[in-house]
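Please annotate this fold before class:
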Amino acid sequence: MRLKTFVADSMTKAMDLVRREMGEDAIIVATHSAQNGRSVRLTAALEDDIGRDQQPAPASAADDEDDTDAPDAGTAIEQALAYHNVPLPLAARLVAAGARFASAGTVAALGGALDEAFTFQPIVERLQVRPLMLVGPPGAGKTIAAAKILTRARRSGRAVAAITADVKRAGGIEQLQAFTQILAVPFAPAGTAEELIAALPQKNGTLTIIDTAGTNPFAESEMNEMMELALAAGAEPVLVLPAGGDPGEAAEIGERFAAAGVRRLLATRLDVSRRLGGLLAVADAGQLAFADVSVNAEVASGLAPINPMSLARLLLPDFPANGSTPQSSEAS
């Protein structure tokens, strides 16, 4: 990670400097007022080891074109958030926050607003200490997400092990087991808290990924069972949720899982979803940090960290000013 500090006499000018020197992938990690009270010090970070081909979506060239017919940054952000069905109170906060960075361009303005509104904590396998337990409603994509994390961890050289608590669903054991056999990763099923404790690897330094059965967030017994498993394993529960859901429903899901101790969100199916308001709603309602996103079905390369700028690009594809069907910013 490359860090650089910029000093300017306003936040807008500091953001301009960041964009020019570090590009739109830079993450704002700290802002301070200088001791004299007449300038702003801003620290930005850039992940050098993450290639552009791993980003959830490429930047749109439209932001840098001189197009007199294009809407201003505030209008473009407002239109995009409306298209994605972002809840109105959250959309209003983002538009207001984006106005402070408007001179830096539309993507940078929305990125700055997202950076203020949300936290971003990617899963870094080489640094993860506690086991990761993937939880979420049925059909959210937890098993495939587990396989992607295992694959990425193996590539980084981390020792890993896999456990599935999804022992009742037909094929629940076999699906993850098939991936672990390909990766040559230790695997065990565990249907109870006692079995889960016994299945945890004894070797220090091994990262354990725990897949779970689908949990109905509105069923108290299922949520209690999930929390019991996480407590027994000493695991960090990470919510896995597909994009494209209803924002109101997503917000309630986020609140329920947050109350159960979940602090991070891993979003799936971004490649087949057009409206992402549900993801913003679940993170906002549950105060969940964005971790990673699943951007395609490929187990070997389909998981990527996300930051405010890459999320802004996902929300700001090239779409007509009237808010009709957006056009993908990806090159065809």
About this structure: The chain has eleven helices and eleven strands. Residues 132-306 form a domain with the Rossmann fold fold (CATH 3.40.50.300). The chain has two domains: 2-117, 132-306. The first strand starts at residue 2 and ends at 8.
